[in-house]
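In this section we turn from sequence analysis to structure. A common task in structural bioinformatics is to predict how a protein folds when a small molecule is present, because the ligand can shape the pocket around it. The inputs are simple: the amino acid sequence and a SMILES string for the ligand, here flavin mononucleotide. Study the lines below before reading on.
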Amino acid sequence: MATLFDSLTIGKLELENRMIMAPLTRSRANDDDGVQPEFVAEYYSQRASGGLLITEATNVSAMAKGYVRTPGIYTPEQIESWRRVTEAVHGNGGKIFTQIFHTGRIALPDFLPENQLPVAPSAVKAAGQNYTDTEGVKDFVVPRELTIDEIKATVNDFAAAAQNAIEAGFDGVEIHGANGYLIQQFLSTNVNLRTDVYGGSLENRARFLFEVVEAVTEAIGAERTGLRLSPGGEFNDIKEDNAEELYAYVVERLNVYPLAYLHIGTFDQNRDWHPVLRPIWKGVYFAGVGFDKQRGESVLAANGADAIVYGKLFLANPDLPERFRLNASLNVPDETTFYTPGEKGYSDYPELSKAATA
Ligand SMILES: Cc1cc2nc3c(=O)[nH]c(=O)nc-3n(C[C@H](O)[C@H](O)[C@H](O)COP(=O)(O)O)c2cc1C
């Protein structure tokens, strides 16, 4: 019976425990060039006692950028800035993957080269708004439909980003197939209205995902590739008809790839997908969203997952594993500083003081 404190092998890596830091966008990068400032290394290295850290979603290309102050991994300067992070985490004995993504229609022209329209499987606008530093919130726009050649180029961008991640010293990458970004836009039935080989049937809607998985695993090895999915997730105005059938199909087919892990976490829905998908997936299974220590322990004990992914709790508690071990009290996450620039609410959450643990 596994516990949170047991080690776990993923690919060729030995994780010291099964408490994983979730990917968390924090919007601390330089907005003009997607370079991470130096204090980002401190934030991640403070959390190195997690079995594995997964970085915030990181843009695979200039066209991928959908949020203010988000980092990239497609220029030499960005790669250099991430190297500081991986060195600091490894220096503290940690392991770290970077989450790579393309936001598709969730971008605004404000974030894109020459203020282009964002791209998507089809020209379907998302309901809702996005935030800009200069003009506040703005409505999403009608995106431009990707051509087949552009789809192929975007697949290559994921593979190049994965290669850059290895060059930056990451132990691997997590492909972001969740939360309504480009990959899930292809999986959806409301953003993907294509009539070519990328639209229509389950197989066609999953084609882009599998091409990305194929290209990334080819580039860096399946043992260094993880994947996040958010089955049935409606975040970013996504609809998936027959989500259960879709994800049963996708996860079954993924078994061909000996991935480092599959990370399942739908954060906008009450439905518990873990009992549905865990039995289908033959590899290492990470369960996320809404876990505390107790629920994590009981899911591991029942073999409902191999490891538990913690988001807000890790955001606010750099020493979360130690706090769980001691059943110590937890810092409360401050939502007002989730996405604000600078170190406040970022690298200044306190560790347990020696006095408190004595
Ligand atoms: C501030 C913040 C930023 C997030 N950024 C990302 C992200 O970049 N990539 C991602 O896959 N999920 C992201 N999420 C979702 C988290 O990974 C996680 O699924 C969510 O916080 C629910 O887990 P929790 O209940 O343990 O916090 C973010 C969540 C928060 C609160």
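The chain has one domain: 8-357. As an exercise, try to locate the residues that line the flavin mononucleotide site and compare them with your own expectations.
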